[in-house]
Amino acid sequence: MLRTNQSISGDRGRRGGLCHASAVVNYFIDCSKREKIFLSNLSMQKLVYFAYGWTMVAKEKKLFYDRIEAWQYGPVIPSLYDQLKKFGRKRITHRILEFNHEKNKFFSWSLIKDSEVEKIVKKVWDYYKQFSPAEMVNLTHALDTPWYKTVRDNGFYAVISDELILKHFSEKEKRINM
After folding, report:
1. Alpha-carbon gap, residue 151 to 142, rounded angstroms
2. Cα separation of 53 and 145, whole Å?
Protein backbone atom coordinates (compact mmCIF):
# COMPACT_ATOMS: atom_id res chain seq x y z
CA MET A 1 0.00 0.00 0.00
CA LEU A 2 1.30 3.45 -0.87
CA ARG A 3 1.85 5.68 2.12
CA THR A 4 0.49 9.21 1.83
CA ASN A 5 3.90 10.85 2.18
CA GLN A 6 5.22 9.06 -0.91
CA SER A 7 5.09 10.74 -4.28
CA ILE A 8 2.61 9.39 -6.78
CA SER A 9 3.79 8.16 -10.16
CA GLY A 10 2.29 9.53 -13.32
CA ASP A 11 2.89 13.17 -12.42
CA ARG A 12 4.90 14.22 -15.47
CA GLY A 13 2.80 17.07 -16.81
CA ARG A 14 0.48 16.37 -19.75
CA ARG A 15 2.18 13.02 -20.38
CA GLY A 16 1.57 11.81 -16.82
CA GLY A 17 -1.22 9.51 -15.76
CA LEU A 18 -2.40 6.15 -16.96
CA CYS A 19 -4.83 7.48 -19.58
CA HIS A 20 -6.45 10.62 -20.92
CA ALA A 21 -9.32 11.96 -18.76
CA SER A 22 -11.58 12.00 -21.84
CA ALA A 23 -11.12 8.24 -22.18
CA VAL A 24 -12.69 7.77 -18.74
CA VAL A 25 -15.58 10.09 -19.62
CA ASN A 26 -16.15 8.28 -22.91
CA TYR A 27 -16.20 4.93 -21.11
CA PHE A 28 -18.89 6.19 -18.73
CA ILE A 29 -20.87 7.71 -21.63
CA ASP A 30 -20.80 4.36 -23.45
CA CYS A 31 -21.98 2.56 -20.29
CA SER A 32 -24.77 5.07 -19.70
CA LYS A 33 -26.07 4.67 -23.25
CA ARG A 34 -25.89 0.88 -23.12
CA GLU A 35 -27.61 0.68 -19.72
CA LYS A 36 -29.93 3.66 -20.27
CA ILE A 37 -28.69 5.49 -17.18
CA PHE A 38 -28.91 9.28 -17.13
CA LEU A 39 -25.54 11.04 -16.80
CA SER A 40 -25.26 14.82 -16.49
CA ASN A 41 -22.10 16.89 -16.22
CA LEU A 42 -22.58 16.90 -12.43
CA SER A 43 -22.77 13.12 -12.11
CA MET A 44 -19.95 12.64 -14.64
CA GLN A 45 -17.62 14.85 -12.60
CA LYS A 46 -18.23 12.70 -9.53
CA LEU A 47 -17.79 9.40 -11.39
CA VAL A 48 -14.48 10.54 -12.88
CA TYR A 49 -13.33 11.72 -9.44
CA PHE A 50 -14.25 8.35 -7.90
CA ALA A 51 -12.37 6.55 -10.70
CA TYR A 52 -9.34 8.76 -10.03
CA GLY A 53 -9.37 7.99 -6.30
CA TRP A 54 -9.84 4.25 -6.66
CA THR A 55 -7.13 4.07 -9.32
CA MET A 56 -4.68 5.82 -7.01
CA VAL A 57 -5.32 3.15 -4.38
CA ALA A 58 -5.17 0.21 -6.80
CA LYS A 59 -2.31 1.30 -9.07
CA GLU A 60 -0.40 3.81 -6.92
CA LYS A 61 -0.50 6.15 -9.93
CA LYS A 62 -2.62 9.00 -11.18
CA LEU A 63 -5.39 8.00 -13.55
CA PHE A 64 -4.91 11.20 -15.58
CA TYR A 65 -2.92 14.45 -15.39
CA ASP A 66 -5.79 16.96 -15.09
CA ARG A 67 -6.23 18.79 -11.80
CA ILE A 68 -9.27 18.29 -9.59
CA GLU A 69 -10.74 21.35 -7.89
CA ALA A 70 -13.22 21.83 -5.03
CA TRP A 71 -16.24 23.52 -6.57
CA GLN A 72 -19.58 24.26 -4.92
CA TYR A 73 -21.15 20.90 -5.84
CA GLY A 74 -18.06 18.78 -5.24
CA PRO A 75 -14.87 17.78 -7.00
CA VAL A 76 -14.62 19.01 -10.59
CA ILE A 77 -12.07 18.41 -13.34
CA PRO A 78 -12.15 21.86 -15.03
CA SER A 79 -10.92 20.59 -18.41
CA LEU A 80 -13.78 18.08 -18.53
CA TYR A 81 -16.29 20.62 -17.24
CA ASP A 82 -15.41 22.89 -20.16
CA GLN A 83 -15.99 20.07 -22.63
CA LEU A 84 -19.28 18.97 -21.05
CA LYS A 85 -20.89 22.28 -20.01
CA LYS A 86 -22.76 22.49 -23.32
CA PHE A 87 -25.06 19.75 -21.99
CA GLY A 88 -26.02 21.82 -18.94
CA ARG A 89 -28.16 19.68 -16.65
CA LYS A 90 -29.27 17.53 -19.55
CA ARG A 91 -28.13 14.03 -20.43
CA ILE A 92 -24.68 13.73 -21.98
CA THR A 93 -25.52 12.31 -25.38
CA HIS A 94 -22.22 11.82 -27.16
CA ARG A 95 -18.54 11.13 -26.59
CA ILE A 96 -15.97 13.87 -26.17
CA LEU A 97 -14.20 14.51 -29.46
CA GLU A 98 -10.77 16.04 -29.90
CA PHE A 99 -9.15 17.34 -33.05
CA ASN A 100 -5.91 15.89 -34.42
CA HIS A 101 -4.27 18.73 -36.33
CA GLU A 102 -1.70 16.47 -37.98
CA LYS A 103 -4.38 14.20 -39.47
CA ASN A 104 -6.94 17.01 -39.81
CA LYS A 105 -9.73 14.96 -38.25
CA PHE A 106 -11.65 14.40 -35.02
CA PHE A 107 -11.14 11.38 -32.78
CA SER A 108 -12.23 10.21 -29.34
CA TRP A 109 -10.10 8.75 -26.58
CA SER A 110 -10.95 5.27 -25.31
CA LEU A 111 -9.69 3.01 -22.56
CA ILE A 112 -7.71 -0.02 -23.67
CA LYS A 113 -10.10 -2.97 -23.70
CA ASP A 114 -9.54 -5.44 -20.85
CA SER A 115 -6.72 -3.33 -19.37
CA GLU A 116 -6.28 -3.01 -15.62
CA VAL A 117 -7.45 0.61 -15.85
CA GLU A 118 -10.63 -0.40 -17.68
CA LYS A 119 -11.31 -3.03 -15.00
CA ILE A 120 -11.01 -0.41 -12.24
CA VAL A 121 -13.22 2.09 -14.10
CA LYS A 122 -15.80 -0.66 -14.71
CA LYS A 123 -15.88 -1.44 -10.97
CA VAL A 124 -16.43 2.26 -10.27
CA TRP A 125 -19.28 2.33 -12.79
CA ASP A 126 -20.86 -0.82 -11.39
CA TYR A 127 -20.77 0.53 -7.84
CA TYR A 128 -21.65 4.22 -8.30
CA LYS A 129 -24.20 4.05 -11.15
CA GLN A 130 -26.89 3.39 -8.54
CA PHE A 131 -26.43 6.85 -7.00
CA SER A 132 -28.28 9.96 -8.17
CA PRO A 133 -26.28 13.13 -8.83
CA ALA A 134 -27.47 14.55 -5.47
CA GLU A 135 -26.37 11.40 -3.64
CA MET A 136 -22.93 11.60 -5.28
CA VAL A 137 -22.65 15.23 -4.21
CA ASN A 138 -23.51 14.16 -0.65
CA LEU A 139 -20.81 11.46 -0.78
CA THR A 140 -18.17 14.00 -1.78
CA HIS A 141 -19.38 16.66 0.72
CA ALA A 142 -19.28 14.42 3.80
CA LEU A 143 -17.22 15.48 6.81
CA ASP A 144 -13.47 14.85 6.36
CA THR A 145 -13.63 14.10 2.63
CA PRO A 146 -10.90 15.65 0.43
CA TRP A 147 -13.46 18.14 -0.92
CA TYR A 148 -14.55 19.13 2.61
CA LYS A 149 -10.98 19.59 3.86
CA THR A 150 -9.93 21.55 0.78
CA VAL A 151 -12.89 23.96 0.99
CA ARG A 152 -12.41 24.35 4.75
CA ASP A 153 -8.68 25.08 4.44
CA ASN A 154 -8.44 26.84 1.06
CA GLY A 155 -11.92 27.77 -0.15
CA PHE A 156 -13.77 26.98 -3.34
CA TYR A 157 -11.86 26.37 -6.57
CA ALA A 158 -8.71 25.23 -4.75
CA VAL A 159 -6.96 22.14 -6.08
CA ILE A 160 -7.75 18.98 -4.13
CA SER A 161 -4.39 17.38 -3.38
CA ASP A 162 -3.55 13.86 -4.48
CA GLU A 163 -2.40 13.14 -0.95
CA LEU A 164 -5.87 13.91 0.46
CA ILE A 165 -7.52 11.84 -2.26
CA LEU A 166 -5.21 8.87 -1.73
CA LYS A 167 -5.63 8.94 2.05
CA HIS A 168 -9.42 9.17 1.78
CA PHE A 169 -9.83 6.32 -0.71
CA SER A 170 -7.28 4.15 1.12
CA GLU A 171 -9.33 4.50 4.31
CA LYS A 172 -12.55 3.93 2.38
CA GLU A 173 -11.10 0.75 0.83
CA LYS A 174 -11.16 -0.85 4.28
CA ARG A 175 -14.95 -0.31 4.47
CA ILE A 176 -16.04 -0.91 0.86
CA ASN A 177 -15.19 -3.95 -1.21
CA MET A 178 -14.15 -2.09 -4.35
Report:
1. 12
2. 12
Tell me whether residue 7 is in a domain: no
Domain extent for 108: 13-173
Q: Is residue 151 part of a domain?
A: yes
How many angstroms separate the CA atoms of 127 and 87, rounded? 24
Q: What is the pTM of this model?
A: 0.88
Residue type present at position 72: Q
Residue pLDDT tens, the chain, 178 long: 333 333 333 333 345 689 999 999 999 999 999 999 999 999 999 999 999 999 999 999 999 999 999 999 999 999 999 999 999 999 999 998 887 888 888 888 889 889 999 999 999 999 999 999 999 999 999 999 999 999 999 999 999 999 999 999 999 877 666 6
**Which residues neighbour 76 within 8 Å (Cβ) at sequence distance 6 or greater?**
45, 68, 69, 70
Which residue type does 67 have? R
| Distance set, CA 82 to CA 38, 85, 159 (Å) | 19, 6, 16
Domain assignment present for 5: no
- Residue 21 counted as domain residue: yes
Q: Residue 82 is which amino acid?
A: D
